[in-house]
Amino acid sequence: MNTSQTYNIKGMHCASCAGIITKTFKKVPGVESADVSYGTESAKLVFDETKTCPEELSKLIEPLGYSLLIPQTAATMGVSEREHGAHLGITPSKKQEKLLEIREMRTKVISVIPLATFSIFVMGWDILAQLHLLNGPNAILDVFFHHLLPILATYTLFVVGKPYLLGLYHFLRYRKANMDTLIGIGTSAAFLYSLIITAFEDVLRPYLNVKHTYYDVTIVVIAFIALGKYLEARAKLKTGDAIEKLLHLQAKTALVLRDGREQEIPANQVLLGELIIVKPGTRIPVDGVVTEGNSFVDESMVTGEPMPAEKAIGMNVVAGTINTTGSFTFKATKIGSETLIAKIIKMVEDAQGSRAPIQALADKTSSVFVPIVLILSFLALAAWLILGIPSLGIAKALSYGLTSFVGILVIACPCALGLATPTAIIVGVGKGAKEGILIKDAATLEKLHHVDTVIVDKTGTITKGKPELTKILNNSEQRDEEIIAILASIETKSEHPIAHAIVTYANAKKITIVPVQNFESIKGKGLKGTIGTTEYFAGNTKLITDLHLSFDEARLLQETSQGRTPVILATKEKVLAIIFVADAIKPEAIQAIKDLHALKINVVMLTGDTKSTAHAIAKEVGIQEVVSDVMPDDKLNKVEELQSQGHIVAMAGDGVNDAPALAKADVGIAMGTGTDVAIETAGITLLNGDLSKLVKAIHLSKITMSTIKQNLFWAFIYNIIGIPLAAGLFYPLFGWLLNPIFAGLAMAFSSVSVVSNSLRLKSKKL
Ligand code: ADP
Ligand code: MG
Hints:
This protein is α+β, with helices and mostly antiparallel strands. Helices cover 53% and strands 18% of the residues. It contains 27 helices and 25 strands. It is elongated, with a radius of gyration of 34 Å. Magnesium ion (MG) binds next to loops.
């Protein structure tokens, strides 16, 4: 049996770490797939539990400086509690750990900044003196600097630069190089060269410029990179705070009715079916159905809908929402990981850790980058020595070669490249969740911005999906009540919104429902059933045509052209009545369609309803292209047809009988109605079924993608310009050679700028 589980990882510093860990895991027998994300610092593993276990996997990466954070799963916990705990307990402690790590980083940065400032000061003085703009430091100061710098560099390299030295160690020991390795080799090479000069100053004096050491490079590069990493870690923490806000929605306690009295218990101990009392102003602890009382509940945190929703007997409430002023009792129907909020949290977490297709390029680049850069740096050093010694002499050639060597290693770090996509995805997915737009994975978010055609289902997407009975055209000798009694009795067995309208009407009129035999629903047309000895049919005109019966077509058209849907009740012999139901248009639909058109997106309405009804509704909301009278399978065909014409198709439906079409579309969008949603079914779920959210989702996709592209540009540009500059390619032409200190600054800046650019997404208006 394969288990799929997501674990947080400790010790990740860069995107190439993700590559190393993925490769290590994939080699293990029993590991089906390993998806490691640097963005969320987690691994999604699918493995055979009989062949391996997370503890074993963690051991494999520990020598490389990483470990899996395995949730504490006491055997005493129930399954649902365990899962509940897994994503409701771990994330906050992961944050605690991260905060500790960041605090440590800050202490180191604070300690190294004065050293770097001092080094830059000495270096600046030296340069100005060489240019004869200033007198050099006097002899005593010179000696002082000369001896102080090595001490400061030793501290910097061995204390602050420890992760990079470890990277170097892992490389030598296990032949695994990550970005820390590059920095490690660069800074320790600079340090070692300088140390040799200091130690053998007198011996080397005839050959080398012994006044020129690289302690300052070691200090300043490490300082900049440590500062950059610190700022990056702080900003990265902020990218994930959408999840944290969702986690805070969990109520801590619940007031349950046990043994006939009210008891306050921890929210995770509520049992299925238990009655829970909700007082004014308190948070709802689990999902359930109201059994007594009524109130208004603020569901904005889950659905994004700002107006509190009315809750009366029989209505759903969900965990995490806040009761306003009334009070009520409800029965727990979903607890732990089954609650909507837990599912949302899991979905957002999974989506944030998932890989966008656009990332493939960056991943590939960074996985080959490290070895290539290593080779390149050695080649540059060799080239300087071979080509440089004859013209510049050994002292200069070696010094320039070393500058190149260190500069390449430092500037070529693809850190920012690894951050470009995931940080934007994390912010984008989180921002969506806040608006009630749930995105299943990064690939969906990416695809959405290519969409040029949106297919919308009529019922439940354009209209409210809550039709009401508006008219009865009675052709029979029976009274209207009798007609409704027959129709409602059959419709009781159907799930269609039309059925709901008829049954609700019958209930309000206190019309008695009678038993029905041989009930059968006729796909895309209606239904049939036997009452007593008579077989009845109810449905659309297609059904009646199938029965070879005729009806008053003019009268029918008169009503349908106003957007009403007919339900024709008939026996095998004759049509008894035509009942009309009307489904009001969602108020936001008109604007949403306008906005979609403004985005140059073609909107097609698809419905099983009659042509004239469909056209009337379409006209009202401004949709030109309508496909009516479609059978459920035709919805799928329509999607395929548009796709074969080269369109990228999004399909929005309520999921009732359009699931295959939703799945076939490039992006399937499920319209959740209020709190009653199945979020696993579609690529995107719009929580309160608001069509204007679709426009927002498309906009979100566009701004996320453009952020990613900007990030990739900024990440690549440093490397593309930096490497040849550092290698000294421009030296023969312009005398340019990149000082490794600037390489360090550029590296720090590129990572920080990428993460900050992603964070900017947060404040953009949707
Ligand atoms: P849609 O979701 O667009 O309504 P369906 O395939 O569910 O598409 O239904 C197609 C048509 O079949 C409906 O528009 C309606 O005319 C008829 N129909 C389906 N179910 C019922 C029902 N329970 N009662 C009456 N008519 C029905
Ligand atoms: Mg439908």
